[in-house]
Amino acid sequence: MTSQGIFNIIAFVLLLVGTICWLFSRRKSWALALWFPLLTISGILLYELQAPLSWRDIFPVGYQRPDYGFVTMGIGFYLMFAIPVAIVISICLIITLAIFPKGNAWRYKGVWAGISSSALILAAAWSFLSDPKITVQILDTNDQPLPNVRVKFTTYQSLGDHIIRLGIKVTDQNGKVSMRVPYDSWTATVWLPDNSWQADPSPNKPFRGRKAWIGMGTDRDHNRLLRLSEGWYQADWGRLAPRYVRTGDFEKKRDFKIKIRTKNELVSSDIQQILHQRLLNVLHEPDKYSHVLDDEYGELDIFNEFPLFMQIFQEHPKFQSDKLDFIRTTSDWINGCWTSTLEKTKNNSDSGGFCDYRALCQWLNLDSSSQAVPQSVPRIQAQLKQMAEPLLDLEKSNWKNANCQAFGKLAHLVKNRIPEFLTIMVSVSKEQNFNQGQVFSLALEQAQPDVEQVRAYFDNANPTIALSAIQAVSRKLKGSDAVAALERISSLAGYLDYRSKERVNIDATLDGLVYKILDSALDSFTAEELTTSLACVQKMPCANNPSIKTQIQRMTKKLATATPVRE
User: Which class for 368: exposed (0-12), middle (13-18), buried (19 or more C-beta within 10 A)?
Assistant: First the structure.
C-alpha cells in the first residue's frame, strides 16, 4: 500500500473518532484539538486530489501541447477514478461544518491545542505525502567522484505532456547531490561540453559534447513496476545515444550513480556486466525474471550477448513474443549498419544516427579515416554477416507462420539462405492463406535474390510462390527470363482476376508486375522474344491499363522499325 493510501486510512479513522467525540463535547476547549485537525485533513485531501493537475493541463498552450478535447477527456477520467477521495473530502467538510465548536470551546488553551495538533497532522502529512529524497553520485571513468558538478533534475507530467524542472544542484566533495523527486517519474542529467562540466548547454548554441543521465519511470505493462533508465549521448558522433533500461521494484531505492564514459566508449563495461548477469538470471529462473527480456538495451550491448540470448530463446519456448521482438529490433539495427557501410563506399559520407560508420569502426577497433575505407568496410560487413546468420537461424522456426521480418532485412547479406527460405515456402504452400503469401512475397523481394536463385520457381504449381519469385527479381529480368515470367503471369491472369474480385490485396498486382518487367527488360528482347512477350501482354486483362498501353506501343514500334540486339 502506498503512503497516500495509508494517510487516507488514518484520516478516515480520525474523522470517525473526532465525530463521536464532538457530538458529546462541542462546548469543551479540547474539542478544538480535534476540530482543527479535521479542517486540516480536509485541506490536505483536497490538495492531494488536485495535485496531479496543473494550469497547463486545464489550459494547454505552446508547441506540441494536446488539444482541449484530449485534455478534457484525460481530466474527466482522472476525476472519475478520484471519486472515493472526493467522497471522503465531502464527508469531512460536511461534518466539520456541522459540529463547529461553540461558545466556551473558543478559549486560548483550546485554540492553541487545535493549532498544535494541526501542526502535527501537517508534519505527518509531509512525511507521508512528500516526494522521496534521492542521492545521485557522479563518477568519472576511474570510479572517482566528481565534485562541483551541476546536476539538473526534471520530472514528466504525462497528462499535460510537459517536463517540469525540479531544480539544479551541485555535487559535494564526494560527487553526491540530493533532491526530492517523485518516486515514479524523474531524471537527473549532467553535460560535458568542451571538456568542462555545466548543468545545461546554452539555448542559443548547438550542444557539442557528452551528456549522461539516469531516470525513473513507470512500466504499466508489468503491474506498474518501475523502469530505471541509464543513458549516454555523444554529439560529436552524430546522434549516438545508447540506453539501458531495467524493470523492477525500485520504489525503495534511494542511491544512484552516473558514471561518465570516455569519448570513444561505446559499450560500458559496468552495464555489460549487469546485462550479462540479468540474462543469466532469466536463463536459470525464467518465471521470476521474465520481465528482463522486455527491457531496452543499447544495441552494441545486445550484440556482445548474442550467444546468451540465443540460449534463452532455445531453452525457453515461453518467450516466443520476446524472441520475435528481439529478432525484429536487432535485424533493424544490423540492416541499418549495413546501409551505413554502403553509403560510406558510395560517397564517403557518414549516415549519422546510432549506425554511424565511425561508431562501427570504433566498436571493432578499425581505422575510420577515409583512406582506410577499402580495408575497414569489408571487415564491418563480415561482422554483420556473422551476426545475421544466427539471427536467421533463430527466426527460421517461425517462417512457416509468416514471421520472416529478419529474413527480408538480412537475407541480402547472406544470400545462401534464400533457397532455404523458398524450400520452406513450398512446403507450407498447401496450408498458407493468402495473407501469408503476401508476407512471403514481400520478404523475398526485400532479400534481393539473384535471378538464378528463383528462376526454377517461375513455373511452381502454387501461384503465390510463382508470383513471389517473379516479383522478387522483376527489375532484374532480361531476355528469355523476362519472357518466361510474362508467360507465367499470362497463365495466372484468370487466377489473379478471381482473387481481385474478392478484394484480396496482392503486392505483385498484374499491371504493376508486368509494367516493371517490361520497363527493365524491353531493350534486351530479340525480335522473337519481343513478339512472344507482346502476344502475352495483349491477352492479359491489364492490357487496357494506360501505363501498359504505353509499353505495348513501344513494343509495337520496335517490332516495326528494327530488330533489338540483346545486350
Answer: middle
Residue 331: which H helix or E strand, with range?
helix 320-347
Strands 133-139 and 255-259 come out as parallel
Please tell me the pTM assigned to this model: 0.68
Rounded to the nearest 5°, which phi and psi values hold at 155?
-135, 160
H or E segment and range at residue 151: strand 150-157
In eight-state DSSP terms, residue 260 is P
CB atoms within 10 A of CB 200: 15
C-alpha cell at 321: 513474443
DSSP secondary structure string for all residues of 368-417: -SGGGHHHHHHHHHHHHHHHHHHHHHHHHTTGGGT--HHHHHHTTTSGGG
Grid cell listed for 558: 520496335
CA angle 188, 189, 195 (to 5 degrees): 150
Q: What is the CA radius of gyration of the chain?
A: 34
Dihedral-angle region of residue 353 (phi above 0 means left; psi in -120 to 50 means alpha; beta otherwise): left
Distance (Å, rounded) from C-alpha 530 to C-alpha 525?
A: 5
347: number of CA atoms within 13 Å, CB side?
6
What value, to the nearest 5°, has the Cα angle with vertex 161 and ends 156 and 165?
40
Tens-digit pLDDT profile for residues 51-74: 555 544 444 444 445 555 555 565
Q: What is the pLDDT of residue 460?
A: 86
Phi, psi (deg, nearest 5) at residue 129: -100, -15
What are the b/e assignments for 80-98, b being 16+ CB within 10 Å?
eebeebeebbeebbebbee
Q: Is 275 helix (H, G, I), strand (E, B) or coil?
A: helix
Single-letter amino acid, residue 240: L
Residues near 80 by Cβ (< 8 Å), separated by ≥ 6? none
**28-42 pLDDT tens trace:** 655 666 677 777 777
Which residue from 323, 315, 351, 316 is spatially nearest to 336, judged by alpha carbons?
351
Q: Which uninterrupted H or E stretch holds 312?
A: helix 306-315
CB 341 within 8 A of CB 378: no
Q: How buried is residue 261: exposed, middle or buried, by Cβ count under 10 Å (0-12/13-18/19+)?
A: buried
- Taking the C-alpha atoms of residue 411 and residue 389, their distance in angstroms, rounded to an integer, is 9
Determine if residue 188 is left, alpha or beta; phi over 0 gives left, psi from -120 to 50 gives alpha, anything else beta: beta
Which stretches of 463-509 are DSSP H helices? 463-472, 479-491, 493-501
The three cell numbers locating residue 263:
569519448
